[in-house]
Design a protein that fits this description.
heterodimer, A: mainly alpha, 6 helices, B: 59 residues, mainly alpha
Chain lengths: 268, 59
């Protein structure tokens, strides 16, 4: 193979490897981006929604306590009663929406249990509210009816949050493992390709340099007409091989000239 | 002994002189001394015939 062809192929190989590396890198980036998009699309969205419901539930209980504490004033009773009902509706809507969208089965079961417990709690709060109003702000009687009733839903929702939080962590960890594995794979493939191409380049250049050194030595001896015992052994079908073949012709011509000169001097 | 190849050299010397011998050596890559030891193989004879033809065309 001609040296120009070899060098051309080497150059084309380098270009191909770098293009492949670029494409691999882009594919890798897309994979990582898609993976994190998937994490953000479901587990992170779920835990965010769950934390909103959790906070609203605590606000709902707080509004109930404000109602009992300040409800002796009709204006405050109306204000805190309204806010309590708003938070109650918000908690229910949030929990129902989350139960419909959440992908984790265990979290879904816990949410269904929470909604049922919240229903029971809401009914008791409604009855306690009626008792409170009928008893002229008798907070003791009202509190007696609902005391500790928020514990079960609170615990259930804490479990939902814990479950979803664990899911986010495990999904992110799985994504990190996937990214690490793909990085190792990409590095291995690109390193292997570069090593292979580098090795081929090194062997090609070494072969060219070695044969050029032989050619230079032959050329030096021919320049000095030192053809005694000279053997031109430069194989190959490339430019150096062709040059070596030309050198053989020059060698033979010099030998012939020396022979003619020798014969002429002997005859004289 | 390559009588045929040696004969080519004699013919080149006769027709084209020393320059002819040199050119024949250059074209065949075989000097007259070596031609004496090379075999009269069909390949060698063809090589010398082609070289002689080139010499004739160049003359």
């Amino acid at each position: 193979m001609k040296i120009t062809t070899k060098l051309g192929l080497l150059f084309a190989g380098m270009i191909t490897v770098f293009v492949l590396l670029g494409v691999t890198l882009l594919a890798q980036m897309k994979l990582v981006s898609d993976g994190y998009d998937a994490v953000l699309a479901s587990p992170v969205r779920d835990i965010d929604a769950a934390r909103v419901v959790q906070v609203n539930f605590k606000k709902e209980v707080q509004e109930w306590k404000d109602t009992l504490l300040r409800g002796h004033n009709p204006a405050d009773l109306a204000k805190y009663g309204k806010q309590f009902r708003e938070e109650e509706a918000s908690v229910r809507a949030g929990a129902v929406a989350l139960s419909q969208s959440v992908e984790d089965e265990e979290a879904h079961k816990l949410l269904v249990q929470f909604i049922a417990a919240d229903d029971v709690m809401s009914a008791k709060y409604a009855r306690a509210y009626d008792v409170y109003v009928a008893g002229n702000a008798d907070f003791k009687a009202a509190d007696k009816l609902v005391r500790g009733q928020d514990r079960a839903p609170t615990d259930l929702f804490d479990k939902v949050v814990q479950r979803l939080d664990a899911r986010v962590k495990s999904t992110v960890a799985a994504q990190q493992v996937l990214v690490q594995r793909n990085q190792t794979l990409a590095l291995g493939i690109s390193g292997g390709l570069l090593f292979l191409l580098g090795g081929l380049g090194f062997l090609t250049v070494r072969s060219i340099v070695r044969r050029l050194a032989v050619l230079r030595a032959v050329s030096g001896r021919l320049a000095n007409a030192d053809v005694e015992g000279l053997s031109i052994d430069i194989s190959g079908k490339d430019e150096i091989g062709e040059f070596g073949e030309s050198m053989k012709g020059v060698h033979a011509a010099i030998e012939e000239l020396l022979h003619v000169a020798q014969v002429s001097s002997q005859a004289a | 002994m390559a009588a045929k190849l040696t004969e080519f050299y004699a013919q080149a010397a006769k027709q084209y002189g020393v320059m002819g011998r040199m050119k024949l050596a250059m074209l065949t890559k075989i000097s007259s001394e070596k031609a004496g030891t090379e075999a009269d193989s069909p390949d060698n004879i063809r090589l010398f015939e082609q070289a002689m033809l080139q010499l004739k065309q160049a003359a």
